[in-house]
Every structure is written in structure tokens, then in C-alpha cells.
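Re: that chain you flagged

S.,

Sorry for the slow reply, it's been a week of failed gels. I finally had a moment to sit down with the sequence you sent. For the record, here it is as I used it:
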Amino acid sequence: MLFHCVKQTGNRKEKWFGTISYLKNYGSHFEIQIQSRSSLMVLFGETSRGYFASIPDFNVGCHLVDPLDFFWNTESLTRVLGKVDGVTVATALYTAAAYLKGLKAVP
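Prediction finished late last night. Pasting the C-alpha cells below so you have them in one place:
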């Protein structure tokens, strides 16, 4: 699955592409492999307190409201991953969730 990332800082927009090269449903959570400026393996799923994303290779994780809430997820993920990787993971999660729910996959 191809997705398009945009990071805006003031009036400046930076754009890049990414792909989800692997998506697996484990029943209790999902695993996705993202290829972009870096390679990221992300585990995400739902708990009694909402959703979560874990990026074990970076030793980070955070709570998410919903995989389709692009703006909240971008804020949460950029705090733990930095701007570029946070935007990339938020966009990939949105794309994967939209695909899984049968929705249009563009944030």
C-alpha cells in the first residue's frame, strides 16, 4: 500500500512517499512494516483505554485515540519518534485502518 506523507512547518511543506510492505492481523493486534525514509515495524491494536502503537526497534510506544484520527496520532507519535517518523507512522496507520475498514485511504 502506497501512502503520501506531508510535514508542514510554518509555510514550508515537506512531502515524501511510504509503503506498507507487510500487514498481519494477529487477532489481538496488527503488525505492519513501513518502508519510507527509514524502515519501521509497528504493532498496533485496541485496549480498554483506546488504541496503542508500539515501535519496538525504537523502544517507544504511545496511546492513540483511533487509527483514523490522523491529527491526534501525529501529535502523539511525533513526541516519541520525531517529526518525520511520527508523520510517517501516523499516515501509515491511517492508511492501514482505512484499508481494513474499506474506506478511502487518504488523510
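What I noticed first: Strands lie at 2-9, 12-25, 29-35, 39-47, 50-55, 60-64.

Talk soon,
D.
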